[in-house]
Amino acid sequence: MDNNFEHFMLANGEKLQLFLFIAIFFITWNIENLAGVILHYKKWKHAFINAPFIFTNIPGQLILGMAFAKTIAWTSSQEFGFLYFLNFGGSTILLFIIAFIFLDFGEYVYHVIMHKVKRLWVFHLVHHSDDIVDISTTLREHPGENIIRLSFTLFWVFISGVPFWILILRQIIQTFSTLFAHMNLRLPEYLDRIVGLILITPNLHQVHHHHKQPYTDCNYGDVLSIWDRLFGTLKKLPAEDLIFGIDTHIMKAACVSFKSLFKIPFRKLN
Ligand SMILES: [Zn+2]
Ligand SMILES: [Zn+2]
Predict the structure, then answer these.
(1) Is 116 helix (H, G, I), strand (E, B) or coil?
(2) Where would I find the H helices in 182-218?
(3) How far is the CA of 81 from the centre of ligand 2 (A)?
(4) Is the Cα torsion angle 15, 21, 27, 33 positive or negative in sign?
(5) Distance (Å, rounded) from C-alpha 256 to C-alpha 264?
(6) Is 199 helix (H, G, I), strand (E, B) or coil?
(7) Cα separations in angstroms, 87 against 91, 92, 98, 143, 198
(8) 216 alpha carbon to ligand 1 midpoint, in Å?
(9) The pTM is what?
(10) Which end of the chain is more exposed for a tag (fewer CB within 10 A), N or C?
């Protein structure tokens, strides 16, 4: 990789990531205003319930951010991690592709675990409790889940020896993908069939947000949909059959405000 690019990512990667998140959020928010498919709700009110999670996630992001920097400094100084043992013939493109695919698989595994382990599901449930899926649903991540997710990523980074610039570049692509997947819009069927062969589309992620099983436990993919195809967890549902939210463990009253959402993981499951 071009040394200049690597240095630029080291110095500015996190700022660039934040800037792009805000810019893409703004753009996708406005695209939704023009092409949104769910219209019968108060978009600003919905966003105000989800937005405070930006702030509650800052401490975890900062602490884990330092852990990422320290871990990658160590793995690169020791050349530790399986990526160092594979021979890519000096090709950084190949290194990026393999590292990207590995981290994406890691996100798939993490997501399946969040659904299958009850003590972890209660944190992820906060994201699934949204009965409208739009761009602000992306923000609805409990700080408990945020820390668990970043800790998983830290573990994948540690065992693979992913360089910092790849991690940042992947997170930028992930930002695009996550915002895209949560948009309040539908791709036309023919386009969804093509794009969905490789990527998680809004049509696919909306099935993941359907309130009933087995649909909640499908389409776990983060950026790539290939893992769901490979492990048989890919499902489709027509738009008219979709109902967002969750039909178990949760009462409507738990979802009316940020405060009540925050308490969901600590409530007794019924
Ligand atoms: Zn999920
Ligand atoms: Zn989601």
Answers:
(1) helix
(2) 189-195, 202-208
(3) 31
(4) negative
(5) 11
(6) strand
(7) 9, 11, 11, 38, 26
(8) 7
(9) 0.93
(10) C
* Beta-ladder partners of 224: 199
Q: Cα torsion at 143, 146, 147, 150 (round to 10°)?
A: -160
Residue 36 sits at the vertex; the CA angle it makes with 30 and 237, to the nearest 5 degrees, is 140
Interval between CA 34 and ligand 1 midpoint (Å): 27
Nearest ligand for residue 125 CA: 1
pLDDT tens sequence across 195-222: 999 999 999 999 999 999 999 999 999 9
User: In angstroms, how far is CA 52 from the centroid of its own chain?
Assistant: 18
How are the residues of the chain apportioned to helix, strand and coil, as percentages rounded to the nearest 5? 70, 0, 30
Contact 98/88 with Cβ under 8 angstroms? yes
Q: Quick: pLDDT tens for 160-190.
A: 999 999 999 999 999 999 999 999 999 999 9
Alpha-carbon separation of residue 69 from 1, 19, 64, 92, 247 (angstroms): 19, 20, 9, 21, 40
Chain centroid, CA 30 distance in Å: 21
Label residue 91 by pLDDT band (50, 70, 90): confident
Closest CA to 147 of 123, 164, 167: 123
* Residue owning tokens 């993490």: 110
